Amino acid sequence: MQKLPSSLINTWLFLAQCDEPQLAKSKLIAFGRIKHYFGNNELAKLYIEQSNDKTIEVFII
Length: 61
Prior knowledge:
mainly alpha
């Protein structure tokens, strides 16, 4: 997988959790990107943590 900037992932997470009606289309797009690259929001958050702290290793069992 290509290295994605944590700021981009943070933006996707923000949009996916946003309740503003004007951002409904962006919310769907962001949720789709999160699902495509990570599967769910929690794994996206783990990705951000791991990219910010190189000593963290995440293993999915």
